[in-house]
Every structure is written in structure tokens, then in C-alpha cells.
Amino acid sequence: MKGKCIVIGVTGSIAAYKACDIVSFLKKQGADVNVIMTRNALNFINPITFETLSGNKCLVDTFDRNFQFNVEHVSLAKRADLFVVAPASADFIAKAAAGIADDMLTTTFLASTCRKIVYPAMNTRMYDNPITQDNIKRLEHYGIDVEETDSGYLACGDTGRGKLAPVEDIEERIMLLAARDHDLDGKRVLISAGPTQEDIDPVRFITNHSTGRMGYALARAAALRGADVTLVSGPVSLKPPMGVRIINVRSAEQMFDEMTERSDQADIVIMTAAVADMRPEKCADEKIHKVTMPDSIRLASNPDILSYIGEHRKEGQIIVGFSMETEDLIENSRSKLERKHCDLIVANSLREKGAGFGCDTNVVTLITREETKELPIMGKDQVADRIFTFILDM
Predict the structure, then answer these.
(1) Phi, then psi, of 326 in degrees rounded to 5
(2) Among 135, 126, 121, which Cα is nearest to 86's?
(3) Residue ranges per domain, the chain?
């Protein structure tokens, strides 16, 4: 977010304190965060808090004499890459819908031409009031994004709609819109992630140690760059990235069906899922099958998804596979590149510290027919970003 100017508007809502977490998060991401408060918001939180978190003066008074020579609300409106109002009261929404500019926040909001997002937070009855709903529709008519509220127990004691959306969702939405240049805009990316599970009997199944973190990091990185992302995921305990279409599967056969059906529509296909190579072959006698131990069960081969996609690729498509090895990393991975008809293999060694399953970091080597590029140890989000940069350079 370095170099991005994000304006956060804070209105008179009990949820105003939650904006502190948003400002702090964006500041840590390197953004230039500027907070504008309404006078009613001062009853809930002190502007010094936002000044400390953002490192910038918190603006309240349109006619504050402690300003630079330029007209502050106009200059900030020009600099803003994204304008977020969270929380947004019913009063602010009504004023913005009517084009009223009678304080610093509404004036700057009206003068700004960047992308704008409004996160309502108010009493359930106020939110459900037809007047408020009409005002929301009017904002949307003018191209302003108004996000849904959360539901739950409110500070007023009511239970229902009107609660500010989760802070984590607001932060992720801001990142999705402003964190990266959308150099993958218009590209369709298909990614597989996680393990598959093959049933032995109603109780047991064969699987592996994959957590899906690398695949989910790739999906998020592609979404941040503006791609249309579909993620085919095995059973994992991860929250789906915002802006990503997710398809949940369990078996290798299900993953094969979903990946091959959608691969024709994708510009980039990335296979990170640790698909089980084998599946139990059920015994004809169900009674025997139920008591047979795993080490004595007959196994049948699962379909090779990456090979199939590579063999049936469309023109101009980029196919990326992952390779995990315990020895001869480069040689084995380069062989896989040829056998699977890939353009790129992302290889890592299970013997390398900080790489492999269950880690927040990874150590990978990017292998094409022309070059081999080793990356240092870094977080999986960073690895994912570097992979897409490498793909774009290809």
C-alpha cells in the first residue's frame, strides 16, 4: 500500500472506535492514511487517537486555520486513491445521497472522484427505515459502493441488521481495491488448493498434510491484481479470500472434474493441490471391506489432473505446477515440467527449513525451460506475489 492515499471517514456511531483498527492496519501496510471526523464522532473517540495511529492531522473543521496554503478538502479529495466511510451513520448517508456538503467529511466526499465505499452502522430500525434504504439506493445509483451491514446484538440492545461489517472484511476489501496495480485485470485464473480425501470406509480415509495455504495465498494475490479468480479447494480450515469464487471438493475425482471443466475458460491454471495419487479400491464383500486394515487395502490410481490439463491446453494458456521433492529438486522438477506439459514449475524441498506443508513461509525455485530462479525464504503471500510477477514477465 506504499504511496496509496486512503481517506477514512468516521461518523457519529458507537462503532467509531473500530475505525482505529482499520487505520492502524492500513498504516502498517504503508498507506498514507487520512482521517476525517464529523463533529458527532468526537463524542465517541478523540481525534488524537487517529492522529497517533495515522501520523497525519485528523480533520474535523472545514474552516480550521491550521492548514497548508492549498484548500485542504479539495487537495485531499484530489490525492485520494480510495475513500472509505466506516462507520457511516444514517445522517451521513442522507446528506451524501442529497449532495449536502455542510462539514469537512461531506465536503471532501462530494469533491472526491476516486472509488468510494460506505459501511453503514446504526440502529436496526434506522437502517431498515425506507428512507435510509432509499438513500442507500441513491448512493449506489451514483456509483458509490454501499456494503451490507452485519447482523447481531447492537449497542442499543436490539438484535438485527445495522452492525458494522467485520473489520477484517473492511480491511481486506480496501486491500483488494487499492493494494496493487490491477495488472491481471481481464485475466481468468484457475487455482487448486489443499488436500484430497479418499474414503477407506465410513470412518477412515487417506489424505496428506497439505493445509492449502499456498493455494489460498495465490488466489488472494491474483484477486489483489484484479484477476477473475476461481479456487477449487480440498478440505481446509482457511477463510476464503475476498473476491475469489470458491468451489469446495473432497476427492481427487471431484477435483479432476471441476478443474478440467473450468480449465478451458482460464488464461492461467495453477495446480497446487496435493492430490492423493491413489484411492482405496472397494472390496466386493462389504463386510470384509469394513474390517480390512488400511495397509492391506487394494489401491487404484487417481487421475493425473495436471497432465490432463497440460495435454489439453488451449492456445496462449499458461500452466503452472508445483513440485515437492526430498532429493534432486531441480532435476526431478524439470522432468515434471516436461512430462506434465507445464510452462512453469514451482519447486520446493521438504528438507528445506521454512518450506513445505504447514508453514507460514516457503522457499521455492521457479523453473521454466529457459531458466531457474531461486527465491529466498519469505511469507507465502510474498511468494504468491512473486510467482505472478514472474508469470507476467513470461
Answers:
(1) -105, -15
(2) 121
(3) 5-178, 188-393
Q: How many C-beta neighbours within 10 Å does residue 117 have?
A: 18
Catalytic one of 5, 58, 156, 283: 156
Chain-centre distance for alpha carbon 392:
20
Assess contact for 299 and 278: CB atoms under 8 A.
yes
pLDDT band, very low/low/confident/very high, at 70 (cuts 50, 70, 90): low
Q: Out of 3.40.50.2300, 3.40.50.10300, 3.40.50.300, 3.90.1170.50, which CATH number does the structure's domain 188-393 have? A: 3.40.50.10300
The pLDDT assigned to 288 comes to 47
**CA 328, chain centre distance (Å):** 34
DSSP secondary structure string for all residues of 22-49: HHHHHHHTT-EEEEEE-TGGGGTS-HHH
The identity of residue 373, as a single letter, is: K
Residue 359 annotated as catalytic: no
Q: Which residues pair with 115 in a beta bridge?
A: 82
Q: Is 222 left (phi over 0), alpha (psi -120 to 50) or beta?
A: alpha
First to last CA, the chain: 25
pTM of the model: 0.83
Q: How many Cβ atoms sit within 10 Å of the Cβ of residue 209?
A: 10
